[in-house]
Specification:
The complex is a heterodimer of chains A (300) and B (318).
Chain A (H helix, E strand, L loop, with lengths): L1 H42 L3 H7 L11 H6 L5 H32 L6 H13 L4 H10 L6 H5 L7 H12 L4 H8 L4 H12 L1 H16 L3 H6 L8 H8 L2 H13 L7 H18 L1 H17 L2
Helix pairs in contact in A: 1-15, 4-8, 4-11, 4-13, 8-11, 11-16, 13-15
Chain B lengths: L2 H4 L2 H11 L1 H17 L12 E2 L7 H7 L1 E2 L3 H8 L2 H33 L3 H16 L2 H12 L5 H8 L14 H26 L4 H8 L4 H26 L6 H7 L7 H4 L2 H12 L2 H29 L7
The chains are: A mainly alpha (300), B mainly alpha (318).
Chain lengths: 300, 318
Amino acid sequence: MEKAISLGKIKKRYSWANFFISLFILLFSLMCLLPMVLTLMVSISDESAIMRNGYSFFPQKYSLYAYELMFQGDSSVVRGYTVSVLITVVGTLAAVLITSLAAYTLANKSVQYRSKLGLVFFVPMIFSAGMVPWYLICSRLGLRDNVWALLIPNLLFSPFNLFLVRNYMSGLPDSLRESATIDGANDALIAFRIYLPLSLPVIATIGLFYGLGYWNDWWNAIMLIDQKRLYPIQYLLLQLRSQISMLRDLQYLAGAGYVTPPSESLKMATAVITIGPIVLLYPFLQRYYIKGMVVGSVKG
Amino acid sequence: MSEKSRRTPKHRFLHDVIKNKFSYLITVPALLYVLVFSYFSYPYIAIAFQRYSYQNSTIWSIFTNGNWIGLQNFKFFFQSQYASQITFNTIYLNLLFIMTGTVMSVLLALFLSELRSRRFTKITQSLMLFPNYISWIIVSYMVLSLFSNQYGIINKLLVGSGGKAKNWYVDASVWPAILVFVRIWKGAGMNAIIYLAAIAGLDSTLHEAGQIDGASRFQIATRITLPMIMPTIVIMTMLAVGRIMFGDFGMIYALVGDNGTLYRTTDIIDTYVFRALRQVGDPSQAMAISLFQSVIGFVMVFGSNALVRKLYPDGALY
């Protein structure tokens, strides 16, 4: 009898703890979501409502004006978006190919020098000479003010991702290669028909790493790009943040008969469409990105 | 003696290349990449000891035509007031990030592991990972929507509750706190998932034994789970400490930008080097500061890794 009572007591304490824990987790995750919601709400606010009341979760007047403007005429937002999509797609495909092919060699046990080769890729992970030589080399190679400057430097290859794929491929059974060799398959066939298809989960992971890297990048633009028509969307957003450049950008709209250019809502609308692809890819990010992060951080 | 052992290393390498020509061939793009962007970058370090001229842009001419000035670039930097300020800011901010970030993510991980409802866990986890995926530029927009002088939510709340609006973007003293907050907001979710994976990987027999012996859930969490994931915590923390000399350029530049009034508390080595290179346009000066950062950073990385290896041999990076 006594035992039953004490168990009841524990149960009760547990439920309080449960409540507190759930509340804490709930509050933190809401905190992660709310700024995003605010950005969305401002982007669909009427500009005059923002001017009067500031940013608000519940705008007094809704308007999709900012989104209409964004896709009108020779909009810098559309151009920036196109540049970003282009470099993300091309860059990610190239990066994944370069990385997984090199990873195949590092995992190939018939290559005697594979660990020395691995060392060549490992040293740059430990010691980097920093941004100055990097900038000088890019300039020297002509990676300035052209689309290659957005594609190649920094993002096209990462030794970290290489080792992620290598480790995965090393975990595949050796008998795969042996039996394929006995059946007369050459190296190319083994790589493309056996190892790469079997490594699809980890290739998806590094694809997301690279893809997110390209999509979110503005470092290459800030260092190497001067021409406005080559600005990727992230860098455009950085530029748009200062009101002045925004107004200058909108002058032609004001000339077209608009009283107040909706600069605040337009800024936030641009931020919203920039998050768009990430929201679309969210299921994949949850599945493959996290796995890579967990594996990579515990053992690089 | 077999033929194999008589071959010189060079011969053996060539033989290996011929035998596995496809394998070696497909490594060429990646090799070329690290060769050009990493190995070719090392000789440029020498310009830290020179007065740079843009005519000497090849590795060769740096050494043949360089205008060597000894340690003058370093002297110039260390005699300025900025040396101590940006070094302090870099280390101080990183320490704040590491301490608050670790506590928060371990706490979140422990709490997440206690949740019973699978659906609730899944939804909240998805939400708290979201900030991890967006760029610092987008984050800066969200920070702006909170702290903006004119339209920001926080000022609105301040005024609404009878206080006075504050111009956050001119007050340097509040920015370390804002940066810590934003850092946790963006990164704690992902780190919590990493710790959660460590918790999920634990052998559950100890927990069961604890339960049978009547330990409370709090006791199980603090006396069993926490000590068992301590290696992961120490390793992750030490690796972060190893990178203490390297600030997060993306974060600082996106949130603070060229707002000089905030430099006192927010300017870090990386942003300073960036300005020396791109705004002042002095690669040699920038290289000198960067070299100072790299050398100390290198020692820190090695030191912390050696410590990890001593404590937990399996956890060392190399």
